[in-house]
């Protein structure tokens, strides 16, 4: 009887893993679970709707990816797209970041090679979740690098479900950001690793990471400015080392050369103002190194001080003159408006209405910070505290990344995305450090209690009484309470993230869903109805005029030529369309004919109460049109500074083309019970002009819920 | 002329501008043939004018059965295209072979069913949303035949009684939606009397310009059917505005010529039905199913007006056992040829039957002529692709929706191919992982860091061994303690001494083993940090060992001297305390070293 348990325990012991192995096993399995979780939480959109591409820009990416799969890389690189920006066209190969498309096609080819007969659309839909999963791995390693593996694990979990990141990486959101956040974090991680180790290999890896980032997203400018800034801070704080020298020089030189291979970026690294900081820091590094060497050679400090003064003055003067000459001669381009609008939130509003008109370029509201970060918003400062407490090269980096990106997140809603990894990492440090401190407290006690009890049962007088006496009961209880509090907060975070993902961020915005009167789900599939109608029932070479928001979708789904699209590279062209929409019909028809337009498409939400329609965007059309053509004046469309569409609206408003196209025959329509005909549900008013007559245009198609209305341009009347 | 030895006795010719099929005209003819010549005759010629022959999609002749008779399965008479001499070139001939030759004076009655597509011409060709659609049908009131006709009549059945105009001949009567011509008697051969009927038809003119059906057999229990439609409304072209307001308000008046939905009768137990197009899923469809059939009602994205096009794909899975059979060691698929859509004319139908990879000896049996070739398709986990039988037929009407068979050989073992591929794929992946973990792929074997790493690994291995030895020592101590407990229970001193002896031997051996390991650690430079801890561990353990021995001897002594249990306990109490403390220290050290 007595030997039995002993042998059993021996057996168990031989199977039992060592603490280290156990830890490894737990860590790997947690990482695997997080990897899977990050993927599947992004599949809500597929479950709720279908496996489809979302929003606006992804449709362009999808279209180019299709082109790439069908025609190969060289054709793609040299692609001149006749179907957009008619009659200008667009050099696609030279005006896009090809990283996303090439990645998707690469995955597609690999799957095909492994004999999985997938469709390229499925690959495109799942690219973003796949890269989000990879990001969690990078976050783990990054966390491990800057703090410890516990913080890495927490960071991986936090970033896997953080709404700020999910908003841009759900299945179907086939956009540059999907892969770019991975590339961004990877570059940062590898660079920090390079700084920590001084290894040329890691530095090389960070150059390649940077290259991938440049190929994927315009946000690479953030990297090329943050890293020099970080290096500068290290220099100032006296943390200059050989490791830093190796890491930065290799990364900058190779990264710059590699980035020049992307046509859209070209020589910007040496020519544009946004990239000059990196170059300046590069030269500064050389000066530093040189001074270091001279200091080593000169034993006399006084002599060195003098030398230092002369060298620094010379270096600054040469740098200043070079920059000035570059600026004056036009070799170095000044900062672009987009860059200015990042540094100064009010800049875009005054100078570039086309940037200001995009909702995701608005300054961030507190509520959306709360929505996207939830508890991370409170953990972030706590994490910063821990970082400052244990200052190292790595923590300085994450602090700088966190602070700068938080500033940018405040300037523009969409840049919350860039801040998310930093916020997750810093919060993870807070969580991990707190929990670790608490558990250490708990564990040390537990052990003592355990040893005491086992020995006590052994029949001896308790020997470890001295140890037990040291414990304070309140401390232990407090630790337990705090731990529970932390877990409660984290579980609230998980619940919040899941809810946000399923309710807010999984809508494709092509298909609109609403709750019906009986709580059932009503689907408005009007966009695709219209686009498919265009695709099937208009001549192959028909040109469609619409506001630029719908350009990408019309070319991708409708397969028809558009006048302007979401690649807002030509402000004048967009302003021309804005002018046409805001003129009277007989003035507009001149513009329409001059642009060779066959169909005009407008989006109208008056029947369904869909509020992001063209009437609500109309003021931006007026503003952008008026910015180029002063004939269009915003006050003409307003009554006492108020924008309205009912009887009290401005006469110009009631008779402009956009108004007519949206409300054509709407005056006869009964939209809501108990309301007069022509009641606009999106704006909650009865429209002012119910008798809309069109002279040069005729209704060609209106979708079943009136969301998209397409008009045909009539041929000119015969003259006799 | 040979054929003029016949004399036809036509009973009726009924021409239906079918109530169901829009772009179709079904012509049903009842013919009684009488041999008026002296020779036996077994072939009857049917003549069609060029225009009709071009549009003819289907022709079938069956022996006529009386009305009261029990319906036997009708055996169709063989019909072949004929090219008799001395006939007008503008006519196309088909010959029907009679079951037995007709002697002089004998008669035989049979039905001929001919189906024409695109025979109705919309006039006017363009209509607005509010207009009704008018179509024109042209034919001959007299039956066009190479033979003399004794009696003949013609009735034209229309879908609706609203008739715009029709050719009035003698003996023309109109009953509601039916126009009757005849009877005419004793017509000479090749008599022709053109008629035209202009009438209203708002039936759906759904024409599939191209339909590709892909039937994929999986021997894991599924037949997957995918149908790609390119559809057009083949009626009068719509012109002018399309007003959604009018269409919403009065869809039957403003949009009478449009059709909004199509119905497909799928086989029973169809599952996983989907309906989508190039840009995604189409949510407007309804599926109803019972044990007899599955009815799928699909709405295109927009109502189909004249000339409007759409394209979509429907797909469904069918249980394998309903369609796949085995005979003479061969398997065969028995499935319908054409589309499950009701009232659909198909201009070009391509049926692709995708057989499992490794099928051989493929042959097709269809009841009408089709173009046929083979392709391969590469699908999931295929190495050299699946054989595909492609059947192509133009001008397909619902009458063609007959079963056809594809015979092929397929070995049951081939089914295991794909699972085995997957298994071996994963197997090789794991093998590769193992190899990677164990292989040394460092480039420079002489670099300092590499050497240091290797040394460190050796040191780790040695420390592992040291730990093992220590833990074995500890178990020996435990055994000694256990023997003491046994002693206190049983009082068997001999057994206890034996245990002591065994333990002594074991511990001696262990310390011998420990010696070379320690010297290695002392000599290795990279063990410098760990060494003090390890040495401390060894020292503590030795101390512990001594204490245990002392305690053991004390207790055994006590028993030998027959001291009381209480006495013995008092004697060892102090030692026991020290032991516990030492044991604790050793455990701590072990843990510490473990974490390095």
Could you characterize what this model shows?
The complex is a heterodimer of chains A (720) and B (596). Chain A is 63% helix and 5% strand. With 720 residues, chain A is mainly alpha-helical. In chain A, the strands form 4 sheets. Chain A has a 5-stranded mixed sheet, with helices on both faces. In chain A, strand 3 and strand 4 form a beta hairpin. Chain B is of the alpha+beta class and 596 residues long. Chain B has 7 helices and 31 strands. In chain B, helix 4 runs parallel beside helix 6 (531-560). The longest helix of chain B is centred in the last third of the chain and has 43 residues, at 448-490. The N and C termini of chain B lie far apart (112 Å). Classes of the chains: A mainly alpha (720), B alpha+beta (596). Chain A binds chain B through residues 18-20, 50, 52, 115-117, 451, 455, 458, 460-461, 463, 510-511, 523, 525, 528-529, 531-533, 535-537, 557, 665, 668-669, 698-704, 706, and chain B through 240-245, 277-284, 301-302, 307-311, 378-383, 573, 576-577, 580-581, 584, 591, 594-595.
């Amino acid at each position: 009887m007595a030997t039995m348990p002993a042998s059993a325990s021996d057996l168990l012991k031989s199977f039992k893993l060592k603490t280290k192995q156990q830890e490894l096993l737990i860590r790997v399995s947690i990482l695997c679970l997080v990897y899977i979780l990050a993927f599947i939480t992004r599949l809500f959109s597929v479950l709720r709707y279908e496996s489809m591409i979302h929003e606006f820009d992804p449709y362009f990416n999808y279209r180019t990816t299709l082109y790439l799969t069908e025609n190969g890389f060289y054709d793609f690189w040299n692609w001149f797209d006749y179907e957009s920006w008619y009659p200008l066209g667009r050099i696609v190969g030279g005006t896009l970041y090809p990283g996303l498309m090439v990645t998707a096609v690469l995955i597609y080819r690999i799957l095909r090679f492994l004999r999985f007969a997938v469709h390229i659309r499925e690959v495109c839909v799942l690219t973003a979740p796949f890269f989000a999963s990879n990001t969690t791995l990078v976050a783990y390693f990054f966390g491990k690098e800057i703090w410890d593996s516990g913080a890495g694990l927490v960071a991986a979990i936090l970033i896997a479900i953080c709404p700020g990141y999910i908003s841009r990486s759900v299945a179907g959101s086939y956009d540059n950001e999907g892969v770019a956040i991975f590339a961004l974090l990877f570059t940062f991680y590898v660079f920090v690793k390079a700084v920590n180790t001084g290894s040329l290999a890691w530095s090389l890896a960070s150059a390649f990471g940077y290259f991938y980032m440049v190929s994927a997203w315009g946000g690479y400018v953030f990297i090329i400015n943050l890293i020099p800034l970080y290096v500068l801070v290290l220099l100032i704080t006296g943390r200059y080392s050989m490791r830093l020298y190796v890491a930065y020089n290799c990364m900058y030189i190779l990264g710059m050369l590699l980035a020049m291979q992307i046509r859209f970026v070209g020589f910007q690294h040496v020519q544009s103002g946004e990239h000059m900081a990196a170059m300046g820091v590069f030269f500064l590094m050389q000066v530093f190194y040189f001074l270091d060497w001279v200091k080593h050679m000169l034993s006399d400090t006084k002599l060195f001080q003098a030398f230092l003064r002369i060298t620094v003055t010379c270096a600054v003067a040469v740098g200043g003159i070079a920059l000035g000459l570059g600026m004056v001669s036009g070799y170095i381009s000044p900062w672009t408006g987009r860059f200015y609008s990042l540094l100064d939130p009010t800049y875009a509003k005054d100078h570039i209405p086309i940037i200001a008109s995009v909702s995701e370029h608005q300054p961030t509201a507190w509520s959306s910070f709360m929505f996207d970060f939830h508890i991370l918003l409170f953990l972030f400062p706590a994490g910063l505290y821990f970082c400052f407490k244990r200052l190292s090269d790595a923590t300085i980096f994450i602090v700088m990344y966190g602070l700068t990106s938080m500033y940018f997140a405040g300037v523009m809603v969409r840049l919350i995305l860039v801040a998310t990894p930093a916020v997750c990492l810093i919060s993870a440090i807070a969580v991990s450090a707190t929990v670790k401190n608490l558990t250490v407290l708990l564990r040390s006690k537990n052990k003592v209690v355990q040893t005491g009890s086992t020995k006590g049962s052994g029949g001896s007088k308790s020997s470890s009484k001295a140890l037990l006496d040291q414990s304070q009961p309140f401390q232990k209880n407090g630790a337990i309470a705090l731990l529970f509090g932390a877990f409660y907060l984290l579980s609230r975070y998980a619940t919040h993230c899941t809810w946000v993902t399923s309710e807010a961020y999984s809508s494709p915005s092509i298909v609109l869903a609403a709750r019906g009167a009986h709580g059932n789900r009503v689907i408005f599939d009007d966009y695709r109805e219209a686009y498919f109608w265009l695709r099937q029932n208009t001549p192959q070479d028909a040109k469609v005029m619409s506001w630029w928001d719908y350009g990408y979708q019309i070319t991708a789904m409708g397969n028809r030529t558009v006048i302007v699209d979401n690649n807002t590279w030509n402000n004048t062209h967009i302003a021309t369309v804005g002018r046409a929409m805001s003129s009277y019909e007989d003035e507009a028809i001149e513009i329409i004919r001059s642009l060779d337009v066959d169909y005009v498409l407008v989006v109208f939400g008056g029947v369904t109460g869909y509020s992001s329609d063209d009437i609500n965007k109309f003021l931006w059309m007026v503003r952008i049109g008026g910015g180029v053509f002063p004939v269009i004046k915003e006050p003409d469309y307003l009554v006492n500074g108020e924008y309205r569409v009912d009887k009290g609206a401005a006469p110009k408003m009631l008779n402009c083309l956009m108004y007519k196209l949206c409300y054509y025959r709407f005056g006869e329509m009964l939209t809501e019970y108990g309301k007069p005909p022509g009641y606009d549900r999106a704006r909650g008013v009865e429209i002012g002009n119910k008798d809309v007559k069109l002279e040069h245009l005729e209704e060609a198609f209106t979708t079943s819920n009136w969301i998209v209305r397409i008009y045909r341009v009539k041929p000119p009347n015969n003259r006799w | 002329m040979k054929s003029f030895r016949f004399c036809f006795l036509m009973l009726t010719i009924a021409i239906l501008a079918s109530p169901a099929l829009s772009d179709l005209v079904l012509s049903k003819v009842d013919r009684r043939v009488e041999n008026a010549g002296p020779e036996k005759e077994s072939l009857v010629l049917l003549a069609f004018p060029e225009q009709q022959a071009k549009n003819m999609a289907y022709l079938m002749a069956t022996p006529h059965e009386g009305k009261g008779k029990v319906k036997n399965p009708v055996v169709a008479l063989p019909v072949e295209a004929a090219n008799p001499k001395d006939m007008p070139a503008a006519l196309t001939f088909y010959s029907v072979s009679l079951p037995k030759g007709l002697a002089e004076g004998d008669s035989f009655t049979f039905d001929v069913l001919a189906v024409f597509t695109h025979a109705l011409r919309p006039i006017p060709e363009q209509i607005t949303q509010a207009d009704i659609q008018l179509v024109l049908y042209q034919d001959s009131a007299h039956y066009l035949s190479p033979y003399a006709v004794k009696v003949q009549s013609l009735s034209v059945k229309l879908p609706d009684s609203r008739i715009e105009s029709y050719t009035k001949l003698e003996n023309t009567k109109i009953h509601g939606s039916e126009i009757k011509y005849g009877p005419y008697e004793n017509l000479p051969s090749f008599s022709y009397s053109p008629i035209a009927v202009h009438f209203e038809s708002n039936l759906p003119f759904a024409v599939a310009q191209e339909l590709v059906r892909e039937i994929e057999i999986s021997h894991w229990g599924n037949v997957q059917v995918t149908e790609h439609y390119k559809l057009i409304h083949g009626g009068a072209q719509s012109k002018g505005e399309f007003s959604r307001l009018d269409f919403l308000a009065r869809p039957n008046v403003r949009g009478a010529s449009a059709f909004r939905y199509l119905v497909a009768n799928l086989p029973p137990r169809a599952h996983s039905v989907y309906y989508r197009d190039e840009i995604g899923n189409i949510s407007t469809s309804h599926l109803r199913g019972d044990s007899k059939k599955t009815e799928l009602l699909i709405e295109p994205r927009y109502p189909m007006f004249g000339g409007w096009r759409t394209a979509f794909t429907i797909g469904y899975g069918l249980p394998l056992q309903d369609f796949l059979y085995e005979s003479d060691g061969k398997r065969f698929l028995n499935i319908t040829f054409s589309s499950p859509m009701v009232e659909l004319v198909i201009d070009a139908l391509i049926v692709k039957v995708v057989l499992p990879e490794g099928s051989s000896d493929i042959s097709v049996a269809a009841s009408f002529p089709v173009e046929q070739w083979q392709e391969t398709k590469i699908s999931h986990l295929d190495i050299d692709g699946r054989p595909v039988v492609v059947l192509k037929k133009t001008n397909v009407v619902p009458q063609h929706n007959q079963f056809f068979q594809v015979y092929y050989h397929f070995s049951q073992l081939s089914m295991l191919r794909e699972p085995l591929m997957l298994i071996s794929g994963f197997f090789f992946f794991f093998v590769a992982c193992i190899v990677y973990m164990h292989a040394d792929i460092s480039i420079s074997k002489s670099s300092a860091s590499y050497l240091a790493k290797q040394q460190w690994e050796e040191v780790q291995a040695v420390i592992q061994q040291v730990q093992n030895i220590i833990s074995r020592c500890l178990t020996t101590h435990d055994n000694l303690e256990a023997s003491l407990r046994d002693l206190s229970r049983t009082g068997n001193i001999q057994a206890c001494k034996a245990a002591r002896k065994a333990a002594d031997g074991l511990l001696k051996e262990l310390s011998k083993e420990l010696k070379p390991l320690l010297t290695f650690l002392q000599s290795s430079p990279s063990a410098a940090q760990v060494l003090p801890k390890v040495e401390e561990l060894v020292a503590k353990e030795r101390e512990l060992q001594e204490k245990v021995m002392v305690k053991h001897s004390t207790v055994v002594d006590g028993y030998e001297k027959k001291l009381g249990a209480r006495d013995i306990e008092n004697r060892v109490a102090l030692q026991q305390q020290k032991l516990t403390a030492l044991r604790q220290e050793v455990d701590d050290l072990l843990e510490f070293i473990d974490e390095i």
